[in-house]
Specification:
It comes from Rhinopithecus bieti (Black snub-nosed monkey). The chain has 107 residues and is an alpha+beta fold. The chain has helices at residues 7-14, 42-52, 77-86; strands at residues 18-25, 28-35, 60-65, 71-73, 90-97. It has a single domain (18-97), classed as Ubiquitin-like (UB roll) (Roll), CATH 3.10.20. 27% of the residues lie in helices and 31% in strands. Strands 2-1-5-3-4 form a five-stranded mixed beta sheet, with helices on one face. A hairpin with a 5-residue loop joins strand 3 (60-65) and strand 4 (71-73).
Length: 107
């Protein structure tokens, strides 16, 4: 069976420098990509997440599911770089308003 791929699908499949991010806020999911080797700063990532989910007027916490399924915080440059570098192949990010309590990956 001969499969045809769009150029973007082929490049994404073979491009190891791209990390696909799947972020969840409430019941809404968003997807975007980051450069694995130059992910940037946490502050820029925070602004991107807030802008992508249209929640710029809220103070939120961001966490991610590591390879063991544990929910870890992304709240500084070190945690952010660790999250991006450990993503394989997807970085699952969970966003929650600060006054909603602890982050829960299933909610």
């Amino acid at each position: 069976m001969n499969r045809s791929f769009h150029k973007s699908q082929t490049l994404r499949f073979y491009d190891c420098s791209a990390v696909e991010v799947k972020s969840k806020f409430g019941a809404e999911f968003r997807r975007f990509s980051l450069d694995r080797h130059k992910p940037g700063k946490f502050e820029d990532f925070y602004k991107l997440v807030v802008h992508t989910h249209h929640i710029s007027n809220s103070d939120v916490t961001i966490g991610y599911a590591d390879v063991h399924g544990d929910l870890l915080p992304i709240n500084n440059d070190d945690n952010f770089c660790k999250a991006v570098s450990s993503a394989n192949p997807l970085l699952r990010v969970f966003i929650q308003k600060r006054d909603d309590g602890a982050l829960q990956p299933g909610t």
